[in-house]
């Protein structure tokens, strides 16, 4: 199993919403899942969180995470949702503003998903209905903006590392590139977003695993990041499972 070395001097950012579930519901701590979000980037990121099926909102939906800092978020049993990094953000005192990548309706606190292209960490944590097994992955199906890694700790089962360490912005084909006002590549689109065809989007006549195969573009992603989802039906090599684990999500992992 691959491992991810954590920085020695990581600081914990002051985020009072991080442990809301554990603090308000102490009896639930034993069955909760703790997510530690670490920023190893040389720049700040603004993590966004989105919970599925009416599940508890973590970290108020989004917050500022300076380089070299970490925040812990505690989720109830059976939680499902996603995390992503927003970059190049500017917000006013009321939390209104804009991000260069991963923006969610111009707000610090996200109530919906981030605008692609964006790297995603996706989770469904264990409950009685799924045998108390967690499912997780790092997905490039919606494109890429920053490297991201997920490491399981303290669990049982395969508990493999999921993630994308490579800098895909530097290797992004010209036709998929997203550039900022200064001309720097800040994100890499998926082929679906760039061309909107059934072949690339796994829709229409290509809507099943048998009819939607890897493409030249998804193979660029897969070759660079073999432990991340590269297209919609990349399940076999990209979905990880673990039981009773906690997870460290690292932005800009080094290995």
Describe the structure.
This protein is globular. It is 11% helix and 28% strand. The chain has 5 helices and 15 strands. It has a single domain, classed as Thaumatin, CATH 2.60.110. The strands form 4 sheets. A 6-stranded mixed β-sheet has the order 1-4-2-15-10-11. It has a 5-stranded antiparallel β-sheet with strand order 3-5-8-9-14, with no helix packed on it. The chain has 255 residues and is mainly β. The N terminus is likely disordered.
Tally the structural domains.
1
> Biggest sheet, open or closed, and with what strands and sense?
6 strands, mixed
Major β-sheet strand ordering: 1-4-2-15-10-11
CATH class, named Mainly Beta
- Taken from the alpha-carbon principal axes, the silhouette is globular
Strand content: 25-35%
- Taking all residues together, what is the mean pLDDT? 87
Secondary structure category: mainly beta
The poorly predicted ranges are: 1-10, 14-30
Sketch the topology as an H/E string, one letter per element: EHEEEEEEEEEEHEEHHHEE
- CATH superfamily placement: Thaumatin
Radius of gyration: 18 Å
InterPro entries: Osmotin/thaumatin-like_sf, Thaumatin, Thaumatin_CS
Main location: secreted
Protein name: Pathogenesis-related protein 5
Family: Belongs to the thaumatin family.
